[in-house]
Amino acid sequence: LLLCTLVALSGGYHRRKLESSRDRWGELFLAALGTCVVVVPVFGSPAGVPRALTVLLLVPSAVATVLLVLVRRLMRAGTQGTIALLAVGDERLIVDLVAATQGGAGLRVIGACVPGGRSAAVEAAGVPVLGDLDAVPAVARRFAVDAVGVTACAEFPAPSLRRLSWDLEGSGVRLVMTSGLVGVDGGRLTLRQIGDVPFLALEEPALDDPRRVLKGALDRVVALLALLLLSPVLLAIAVTVRATSPGPAMFGQTRVGRHGKEFTIWKFRSMHEGAEDRLAELRTESDHGDGPLFKVYQDRRVTPFGAQLRRWSLDELPQLINVLRGEMSLVGPRPPLPSEVGRYDEHVHRRLLVTPGMTGSWQVNGRSDLSWDDSIRLDLRYVEDWSLGLDLRLVCQTFAAVLRGRGAY
């Protein structure tokens, strides 16, 4: 009861129009800390309060509170258009904003106000243009939006932005400004005040962070334990591969790792022997158009047992050897072929700044069903926003992705 009361007092149950998951967990942490401050002295005092009773009351309350927060987050994540946003400013940045919020980002752009009151590009993105920049306050009230999101725009200088904030006072409509850095984790952005001017600072990605050492150590420990525990399964798969089609049980292929260093990736063979020699004749059947990535749905080179291995991602288990050797990580960008790297645009080479992984954003978001551009976008975002927490989340999401089997072919 005390924990729930403190969560309520901190605003944890209050529905705000603009919120972040960090805010919610921060409120929960502060409430738990406050509970400990009150309970621990009582727990250790000779006042006659039974310790078992204290624990029995505290644990269910803590579990119930955490579950409530989790359920609320899931409900919010599954609800399209939780925050109704009116986008204001440059039409190109508005189009980018619309694209970034179409995947269930917790907000929905219901309309836009642009210079001149017309924009074919914005309307082509599925958002109606509701007026020009002078009409923003009236449009915001008319359509009862939750927030007005202002993008960078030469026709909307700082004095106009300040007047807009005054016009929106008392309406319940929040005024927010987009950074234009679509795809950048908010944890890397901080507001800095220098003199009378506020600046939005972007922290560098954690490419050489000391936590990378911990990540590498955890990778090797987990890989070693997994190889030991799964050795009967690995042996059974190897025997079955040899028994169901002629050829070796394992398949080795050259891939490109961190900083462009090549290595041999290991998989259970899921194709008929000599499948690589038939690659040229299947190039025209690629489901990724002219992009460097080559994937064919229902590839006729795949054996029946190999199709089952791919369906459950069991063919990739030998990559634990690569992880143990430090050539791969448990989580990271997809390890590319040398032929793919040879066709990279300059910015795509940033994928090679970190160790490739057995799983990653590409794995949990569709694997082979992803377009080349989407695959690159996800990998680059992983490189930019990496953290140990992100790795843990992707590992958990991988199990659900394997069960769904989407893009596994």
SSE layout and pairing:
Elements: H1 2-9, H2 21-44, H3 51-77, E1 83-88, H4 91-100, E2 107-113, H5 120-124, E3 129-131, H6 136-142, E4 147-150, H7 158-167, E5 174-177, E6 189-194, E7 197-202, H8 211-229, H9 231-244, E8 250-256, E9 262-268, H10 279-282, H11 304-311, H12 319-324, E10 329-331, H13 338-341, E11 357-359, H14 361-364, H15 372-385, H16 388-404
Structural commentary:
The longest helix has 27 residues, at 51-77. Strand 1 (83-88), helix 4 (91-100) and strand 2 (107-113) form a beta-alpha-beta unit. The strands form 4 sheets. The chain has a 5-stranded parallel sheet, sandwiched between helices. It has 16 helices and 11 strands. The radius of gyration is 26 Å and the shape is elongated. By secondary structure, it is of the alpha/beta class. 44% of the residues lie in helices and 14% in strands. It starts with a helix and ends in a 5-residue tail after the last helix.
Number of E strands: 11
Categorize the overall geometry: elongated
Mean pLDDT: 80
Tally of helical runs: 16
H-E order: HHHEHEHEHEHEEEHHEEHHHEHEHHH
For the sheet with most strands, the description reads: 5 strands, parallel
In what range is the share of β-strand residues? Answer: 5-15%
Low-confidence region ranges: 77-81
Q: In angstroms, what separates the terminal alpha carbons?
A: 51 Å
- Structural class, from secondary structure content? alpha/beta
Widest sheet, order of strands: 3-2-1-4-5
- Radius of gyration (Å): 26 Å
Secondary structure: helix percent? 40-55%
